[in-house]
Amino acid sequence: MSQTTSAGGGRYTRSTGGLVGAMLVTVVAVVAFWGLNALKTDHESTPVPAVDYTAMMRAGRADHKLLVMAPPSLPGGWKATSASYDTGTTPIWHLGMLTDKSKYVGVEEALGGVKDLVEQHVDENAVQGKDVTIGGETYQTWTDAGGDYAVSRTVPIEGGTESYLVVGTAPHASIRDFAGRLEGGSVRPPG
Fold first, then answer.
1. Which has more confidence, 48 or 128?
2. Residue range 53-181, CATH number
3. How many CB atoms lie within 10 A of CB 87?
4. Rounded distance between C-alpha atoms, residue 179 and residue 70, angstroms
5. Could you state, in order of their start, the residue ranges of all structural domains in the chain?
6. Do residues 53 and 177 make contact, with C-beta atoms less than 8 angstroms apart?
7. Is 15 helix (H, G, I), strand (E, B) or coil?
């Protein structure tokens, strides 16, 4: 062991064992502090704030590049938690909601076929089920191993096609019922 004299004249011993011991005491103190805080902390999750999707929906519909499928109003107890419309040559509409049972339901819409929407928002390995009729229109159904369920529809518009998908963890009937509530704006041909 080496001894060192401090500038103040006191003597103390420095050693690797002493350093390790001090570190252990510090780690134990930090873990104990963390554990006590964890016990007294309220474990309720922070509620997800609601958003007003109607302003974004109106802006998207005014762009006239997508139908911007959305309900005139949300079912009782549901709340919109996210809404976005990206314009440009590849416009995209998104509306995310939580049901009254805190299950997720989302609307995803883009130009072109439904394949990319399904891969991105359901699963790359989503399984296509039997078609269903909702509001007199035919929808494809999709599921994945994680419990997501979706209905999709491809719609001819001036200048091409667009697709939309209603996807979520809510019961299948709730997703289909919600898809039946959707309304869209109008689309102008490009140019």
1. 128
2. 3.40.1000
3. 13
4. 9
5. 2-40, 53-181
6. no
7. coil
Task: Tell me the CB-side half-sphere exposure of residue 50, using CA atoms within 13 A.
Answer: 11
105, 109, 115, 121 alpha-carbon torsion, rounded to 10°: -30
Q: Compute how many other C-beta atoms are within 10 angstroms of the C-beta atom of residue 69.
A: 25
* 24-48: pLDDT as tens digits: 777 777 777 777 766 665 556 667 7
Instruction: Compute the C-alpha angle 119/106/100, nearest 5°.
Output: 140
Percent of the chain beyond pLDDT 70? 85
Tell me which of 41 and 75 has the higher pLDDT: 75
Residue 69 near residue 182, CB atoms below 8 Å: yes
Average of per-residue pLDDT across 140-152:
95
Can you give the length of the chain in residues? Answer: 191
Cα separation, 138 vs 132, in Å, equals: 6
The CA distances from residue 142 to 59, 62, 94, 99, 111, in Å, are: 30, 31, 18, 20, 19
